[in-house]
Design brief:
About 80% of the residues lie in helices and about 0% in strands. With about 160 residues, the chain is mainly alpha-helical. It has one domain. It is elongated. It holds the Pfam family DUF6644. Keywords: Membrane, Transmembrane, Transmembrane helix.
Length: about 160
Amino acid sequence: MNWLQHLCQLLYDSHFGTYIRESDYAFSIIESVHVLAITLLVGTIALLDLRMLGVVLRGVSVTRIARTVFPLTWSGFLVMFVSGFLLFWAEAAKNYGNPAFRIKVLLLLLVGVNPLIFHTTIYRRVHEWEQLDVSPWRARAAAIASLTLWSGIIVAGRMIAYF
């Protein structure tokens, strides 16, 4: 057994993991909080992405939308991360070999790289294009990648229960 699989088994066998998994309410409450946090996170990200694609709020600058939604985005991310880790803790041994879970983790890594690249490249010059109805192609590509990756994460997350 490799170290990661061993760690997953330790989490799964822990009292806390067992409590979450076997409780009448804990798992479902945590899962509901997780879904609501994803809704907040992806909703705010989608708003900015759709603005960069020129689909919504064309008259509002990209930076104004970003400044407005980022506190909500980070709040959603924090709650999603904590609740997701608790769900993982409860089912770590099962998730270790679950292909849907592995796809979700891979997509989460990619969705983290996307804004890193975006903010260190095209967004540095946002003052040049933020008022345009449709953003430059690199910003649109990042928006499409973001929407696609988050959609994949949601689908893979839902599929975990079926593998």
